[in-house]
Design a protein that fits this description.
By secondary structure, this protein is of the alpha+beta class. It contains 18 helices and 8 strands. Helices cover 58% and strands 9% of the residues. The longest helix has 35 residues. Involved in the uptake of ammonium/ammonia (NH(4)(+)/NH(3)). Transport is electrogenic.
Length: 553
């Protein structure tokens, strides 16, 4: 009997540690997914946030969060308040191996919730804000939700069902991200005063898709791993414990994932007549989130339906958040994690394979649980961000945002080969006088401007009826001051700044009007606004028609 118990305990511990490491590997997925969806000048900052959520999250959850979850579970579940006993059960347990293994399993879920929030706030948040919020979510918000649902608390006693964290992790993180993004405000240039939006594409679809696939792989630890007990000993025999339904969890997880991609891809194609790569990738995640709360009980048709619904709502909700709420949710955190988690959690009584009792009553309990978790996340997040805004700890200044958080916040360049050059001195007196432009029927107006002024320049050019233009991302050096980068402790000068080159070939439109329009749209009054050059074009030929000269333009 004792030998069988030892075998069961050992196998169960190995299983929990294995899936814990798998969930921990999801940090790499979060890092790549979020880094791919931000601008190149903010990649290192986003990677740093992932490290912050891991370091601060583990420390705080070990120091405070695990005990808070235990206390909340005992008190709201009808037990007596004994803070000392709760801390002792975590930090000086009789069964150290089992207790501390469970702590680590809870810890990777806590830091996952924190990482979800960071994706919504990308590109304009101070590192200290991530430190503060990670401490709050892993020390207060997530542990309270854990205590209420998974540690025997009030919602658990009512029958609230959330198998692997659709509500406790994903809805909680998604709502926190939405509220935080609203309170911290959008990135500069994201929305215009007239209500229109400006698209700010991430710098790498490759990284975003790689991150998605890593998260999908890790999700098997997230869901399947929650069936945490492999064996049990009954009547002197070794029998399957939670593994009796692990096949259903694996199947539902897979079906939710792939049909999430189908749902998001179909709606994106309907809206744009193109199969959007990023929506397809995010749809996989939304489908996974949607099936996560019920993966242990859902019949496979229910998993298919939840995957489709979770993926399909993604483009719709993201459009609503962007255009109606005007919230700059950089990594689509709320539709991927927030609403998908809510839908999956509420669906419990309708997709469970062998549900008994009143579905309406069970649905009411699910609604109550979601309301509590949403209120908890939104309420505490609001207090934290309003307090941080009050002392100017939440958002970076406009100059840092324009330059990029990699250099200004961390002193690094993600792609240093584009900025690492020796300085070149310009001799005094090196002034070239303008002898006037040579006469030409065709001229090339070439401007180097700040990337965030491109939208205004395009608007100004359209208003004067300027012809088509070519836009190129470039790096350059001018009057804008250089900065200092750092690589493994070695400093170097970064004297090339991100710019946009705008080229406009002019034949009929007055050249001076084009120059004036560019200057008006690109001017901020600060060093680094750029320059405009006008060059004569000796010849032009239209490839399709063979027309030459001004007719080709």
């Amino acid at each position: 009997m004792s030998d069988l118990t030892t075998v069961a305990t050992g196998v169960n511990l190995v299983w929990v540690l294995l899936v814990t490491f798998l969930v921990f590997f999801m940090k790499a997925g979060f890092a790549m997914l979020e880094a791919g969806q931000v601008r190149a000048k903010n990649v290192a900052n986003q990677l740093t946030q992932t490290i912050i959520t891991m370091v601060v999250g583990f420390i705080v959850f070990f120091g405070v969060g695990a005990a808070v979850a235990t206390i909340v579970g005992e008190v709201t579940g009808g037990g007596a308040l004994d803070v000392g006993a709760a801390f002792a059960s975590v930090y000086a347990p009789a069964d150290q191996t089992g207790t501390w293994t469970s702590w680590l399993f809870g810890g990777v879920f806590a830091i996952a919730a924190a990482n979800i929030v960071s994706g919504a706030l990308a590109g304009r948040t101070r590192p200290r804000m991530y430190v503060i919020y990670t401490a709050v979510i892993t020390g207060i918000i997530y542990p309270i939700a854990d205590g209420l649902v998974w540690s025997g608390g009030w919602l658990a006693t009512m029958g609230f069902h959330d198998f692997a964290g659709g509500a406790v992790v994903h809805t909680l993180g998604g709502v926190g991200g939405l509220v935080g993004a609203y309170l911290i405000g959008p990135r500069r240039g994201r929305f215009d005063a007239d209500g229109s939006t400006n698209v700010m594409p991430g710098h790498s679809i490759t990284l975003a898709v790689l991150g998605t696939l890593i998260l999908c792989f890790g999700w098997y630890g997230f869901n399947v791993g929650t069936a945490a007990s492999v064996f049990a000993v009954e009547n002197g025999q070794l029998v399957l414990d939670s593994f009796s339904y692990v096949g259903r969890v694996a199947l539902d997880t897979t079906l939710g994932m792939v049909f999430g991609g189908v749902g998001a891809g179909a709606v994106a194609w309907y809206k744009t007549r193109k199969l959007d790569t990023l929506f397809l990738a995010n749809g996989l995640l939304a489908g996974l989130v949607c099936v996560t709360p019920v993966a242990d009980v859902a019949a496979w048709p229910g998993a298919v339906a939840l995957g489709l619904i979770g993926g399909a709502q993604l483009p719709i909700v993201f459009d609503f958040v962007e255009h109606r709420l005007r919230v700059d949710d950089v990594c689509a955190v709320f539709p991927v994690h927030g609403t998908a988690g809510i839908i999956g959690t509420l669906a419990f009584p309708f997709v469970a394979a062998s549900f008994t009792g009143s579905r309406l009553a069970a649905f009411g309990v699910q609604v109550l649980g979601i309301a509590v978790i949403v209120a908890l996340s939104a309420g505490v997040t609001t207090v934290v961000f309003l307090a941080a805004r009050g002392v100017n700890w939440a958002r970076v200044d406009s100059d840092s945002e324009n330059t990029g958080l990699d250099v200004t916040m961390h002193g690094v360049e993600t792609y240093p080969e584009f900025g690492e050059h020796e300085s070149v001195s310009v001799p005094d007196g090196g002034v070239v006088t303008d002898g006037g432009r040579p006469a030409s029927d065709i001229e090339l107006v070439m401007a180097y401007i700040r990337p965030d002024t491109l939208g205004d320049v395009k608007t100004e050019l359209a208003e004067i009826g300027a012809p088509s233009l070519t836009v190129t991302d470039v790096s350059g050096r001018g009057s804008q001051p250089s900065t200092t980068g750092q690589w493994r402790g070695e400093e170097y000068v970064v004297d090339l700044h991100q710019k946009v080159k705008v080229e406009c070939v002019v034949a009929d439109t007055p050249t001076d009007d084009v120059v004036e329009a560019i200057c008006h749209g690109a001017k901020t009054g600060q060093k680094g606004d750029g320059k405009v050059f006008v060059l004569p074009v000796s010849a032009a030929t239209q490839i399709r028609t063979g027309k030459t000269g001004p007719d080709a333009v």
